[in-house]
Specification:
This protein folds into 2 domains: 141 residues, Aspartate Aminotransferase, domain 1 (Alpha-Beta Complex), CATH 3.90.1150; 252 residues, Aspartate Aminotransferase, domain 2 (3-Layer(aba) Sandwich), CATH 3.40.640.10. By secondary structure, the chain is of the alpha/beta class. The strands form 5 sheets. The protein has a 7-stranded mixed sheet, sandwiched between helices. Helices cover 36% and strands 15% of the residues. Helix 2 packs antiparallel against helix 9 and helix 10 runs parallel beside helix 12. The longest helix is centred in the last third of the chain and has 27 residues. The protein contains 12 helices and 17 strands.
Length: 404
């Protein structure tokens, strides 16, 4: 008789955003006349930049000709894209990252979950709390998190690093030694950032104890503050302890076309074994590469025209964030984020739980957001709204909240 991976049975309920989708679907079916404004899932709403669309069309035409047709992509990704990434995302910021340290993929979510394949199951993981659910859930699937306690909403073998207003939503180095540390800045869900000196402390800690940092920089394009780094490799020594994951979804709107990449430096080793070689082996065995037409379109955002057009997209969403942030503050809410990130993190009013506030917004104001408790126990009493809606819907949503 075959056997299943029983680690899946330990997972509490369904994935957070699946639960939200089911609740919204049930409400919509029961109330078909209601005008629902969705500010929950971080999916973009603007179309792809014109220069990206133009390149997509050209790449499709290339696939129709024998002379320019492309089959399987190179394991690490096409050189033209990796060269553009290395130059624009790293070298121009003073980071010594080479093209052959970059692995192109179909998105940051996939890489965040798959990166655990190259680590032993008895590694101790540390996560921010609240945290993007994929980090914890995929480690639970791999059998690395222990037993889930429904009362505390914590896993027995996970080190939780509370991110609260008392520590400005920046995690503090835990007393218990960790092996794999997950950091995401600008942060999802709180929308907050970490100063360079604080991030350097994490790099120094990881180097000291022999830990590896999985650094999710999916939202770096939204940074406007001068003291916030765009890459962990801006910190001294980070190439010896950090893996960085990036996405084209939020900076260029590729949520539906799927493109991302992971940086694994050659300097990153465990007892002499290169993590770069391990990830290359995993990547080549389990992944056949992002499509040529998508990689060609992705390279376009590094052209002068592409930079201009994607910057306009980011500015559009950050204007939405400003509208939400200022509107909620004027309405008396306690608000965080929304300055260097497209997420607004607010304290729920009147001692409501996160899910009570979710139900209130959905049923009374017909607005969909994300309960903070879905991101971890320290997220209870908070709520996330995204700036990825349209300008018109964002304004209408804020007006509903303010005028209630």
């Amino acid at each position: 008789m075959f056997k299943i991976n029983e680690n899946y049975l330990k997972l509490p309920g369904s994935y957070l955003f699946s639960t939200i989708a089911k609740k919204v679907s049930a409400y919509t079916e029961a109330n078909p006349d209601k005008d629902i404004i969705r500010l929950g899932i971080g999916d973009v709403t603007l179309p792809l930049a014109p220069c990206v669309i133009e390149r997509l069309h050209k790449a499709v035409d290339e696939m129709a000709s024998k002379e320019t047709f492309k089959g399987y992509a190179p394991d690490l990704g096409y050189e033209f894209l990796r060269d553009a990434i290395a130059l624009n995302d790293f070298k121009m910021r003073g980071c010594d990252i080479s093209a052959d340290e970059i692995f192109v993929s179909d998105g940051a979510k996939s890489d965040s979950g798959n990166i655990g394949d190259i680590f032993a199951t008895d590694n101790k993981i540390a996560v921010c709390d609240p945290v993007y659910p994929v980090y914890v859930d995929t480690n639970a699937m791999a059998g690395r998190t222990g037993v889930y306690d429904q009362d505390t909403q914590k896993w027995s073998d996970v080190i939780y690093m509370p991110c609260t207003k008392e520590n400005n939503f920046c995690p503090e180095i835990p007393s218990q030694t960790s092996d794999i540390i997950y950091l995401c800045f600008p942060n999802n869900p709180t929308g907050t950032t970490i100063p360079k000196d604080k991030l350097q402390e994490w790099v120094d800690y990881a180097l000291k104890v022999g830990a590896v940092i999985i650094y999710d920089a999916a939202y770096e394009a939204y940074i406007s503050s001068d003291d916030v780094v765009h890459s962990i490799y801006e910190c001294n020594g980070a190439k010896g302890c950090a893996i960085e994951i990036r996405s084209f979804s939020k900076n260029a709107g590729f949520t539906g076309t799927r493109l991302g990449y992971t940086v694994v430096p050659h300097d990153l080793k465990c007892n002499g074994t290169s993590l770069h070689s391990l990830w290359a082996r995993r990547h080549g065995t389990k992944f056949n590469g992002a499509p040529y037409i998508i990689q060609a379109a992705g390279a376009q955002i590094y052209t002068e025209e592409g930079k201009k057009q994607t910057k306009e997209m980011v500015s559009y969403y950050m204007n939405n964030a400003k509208i939400i942030r200022e509107g909620l503050i004027d309405a008396g809410y306690e608000v965080y984020g929304g300055v260097d990130a497209p997420y607004i993190w607010l304290a729920t009013p009147d001692k409501m739980t996160s899910w009570e506030f979710f139900d209130y917004l959905l049923e009374e104001l017909n607005i969909v957001g994300t309960p903070g408790s879905g991101f971890g126990p320290s997220g209870e009493g908070y709520f996330r709204l995204t700036a990825f809606g349209s300008y018109e819907n964002t304004k209408r949503a804020v007006e509903r909240i303010v005028n209630k």
